Amino acid sequence: MAIRAKTIAKEKQEAVREVKDLISKYKVIAALNLENLPTRQLQLMRASLRDGVAIKVTKRRLFNIALEESKQSKHGIEKLIAELKGMPGLLFTNENPFSLYKKIGKSKSNAPAKAGQTAPKDIIVKAGSTNFAPGPIIGELGAVGIKAGIDAGKVIIKQDSVLVKEGQVIKANVASILTRLGIEPMEIGLNVTAVYENGLIYKKDVLAVDEKQFIDNITLASRYSINLAVEIGYASKDTIITLIQSAQRNAQGLQSTIKVE
Asked: Which of 31, 38, 48, 162 has the most crowded CB, counting CB atoms within 10 A?
């Protein structure tokens, strides 16, 4: 029994050492929640991301120890402890956090919800028509919080409804209704909860930013700032030509209204 205890202790120490080695080797570390992810899918994801990427799965307590003991050499890495959710894992890479998140997102597929699973995000049923004929289904929809009615001989959903909040457990009757509505809210793939890089923690709401919208916002902000600089007469390499042209027009306008001796 004592030998077995020593063996287990040694295995745990080895697991912590492996995680610490990976933390020191890679610049970017992502916290994963592998809950609801079939082993087969995890193997496929490991294979598809194997170039320059390492994935480690162990007990949360061992991750916590490794992250805490690495904070001296990697500033802020201990903040990732709070982002270890469900069945935790860590992904190690040197890839940009945003491109990594986008790549992982593209590899996901949807699946029906099962009772007892945790919602990966808010599960929303949109307003609109259904294929259901009037009957008991109206009461079943109402039982899970969906306001339904009848229009043109079909059951309709009157308004958008949030059936399950992100992180909540999906009940059996809710899972059944979602399946009957053809809604597949579960995401099969790696669930990234946060990413560490250079002392910063990027959470999902930041990582999931729309690239086109982000670029459009930057472009618009740049345009507004230049317009403001011109308005207040602030000279810079971006405004000097416009300011000179404006001054020239003003001078010409002034010249036309007064008599120059």
From this structure: 31
Question: For residue range 61-116, what is the model confidence (pLDDT) as tens digits?
Answer: 999 999 999 999 999 999 999 999 989 999 999 999 998 998 888 888 888 999 99
Assign domain 123-186 to its CATH architecture.
Alpha-Beta Complex (3.90)
* 3-class DSSP state of 190: coil
What secondary structure does DSSP assign to 107-173, as a single string? T-EEE---TTPBPSS-EEEPSEE-SPPSSTHHHHHHHTT--EEEETTEEEE-S-EEEE-TTPBPPHH
Cβ within 8 Å of residue 184, ≥6 positions away? 110, 111, 112, 113, 178
* Alpha-carbon distances of 203 from 53, 218, 231, rounded to whole Å: 20, 21, 38
Q: What pLDDT band is residue 225 in, cutting at 50, 70 and 90?
A: confident
- Quick check: helix, strand or coil at residue 4? helix
Between 49 and 54, whose confidence is greater?
54
pLDDT of residue 234: 74
- The C-alpha atoms of residue 210 and residue 195 are separated, in whole angstroms, by 17
Rounded Cα gap, residues 144 and 173, in angstroms = 7
> Which residues are CB-neighbours of 209 under 8 A, at least 6 positions away?
98
Confidence (pLDDT) at 1: 47
Q: Which residues contact 119 (CB under 8 A, 6 or more apart)?
A: 113, 164, 165, 166, 167, 168, 169, 170, 185
Strands 28-33 and 148-151, how do they pair?
Answer: unpaired
CATH fold, domain 2-108+189-209, is Alpha-Beta Plaits (3.30.70)
